[in-house]
Every structure is written in C-alpha cells, then in structure tokens.
Design a protein that fits this description.
The protein is 93% helix and 0% strand. By secondary structure, it is mainly alpha-helical. It is rod-shaped and about 85 Å long. The relative contact order is 0.06.
Length: 61
C-alpha cells in the first residue's frame, strides 16, 4: 500500500497539471478576445474616418 507522502505528491502533480491546462485555455481565450476587440476597434475607426471625410467634403462645397 502506498504511503501518504506518495499520495500527496501524486495529488499535487495532478492538481498542477490541471491548473496548467486551465491557464493555457485562459491565455488562448484572452488572445482570441483581444483579436476580436481589435477588429471591432479597427472597423469603427474606419467608419469614423470615412464619416469625417464626407463631412469635410460637404463643408467645402
């Protein structure tokens, strides 16, 4: 029968492995979310840019 120390070390290693996988999933989710936000900001900036250009063209006439 295994002693308590081996069981404790085994539980810690399993817990550490699960924590590592969880951390990697969090990093992946954060990276995907950042890309999504960056894309939205770029699209809104482009819309604003063209709106300002239209306003400037209308003001010159």
């Amino acid at each position: 029968m295994p002693n308590v120390t081996d069981l404790f070390i085994g539980m810690l290693s399993v817990f550490g492995f699960i924590t590592l996988i969880n951390f990697l999933f969090l990093l992946l989710a954060n990276k995907l979310q950042t890309r999504k936000i960056t894309k939205i900001v770029e699209e809104q900036t482009e819309v604003l840019y063209y709106a300002i250009l239209e306003e400037l063209k209308g003001g010159d006439e």
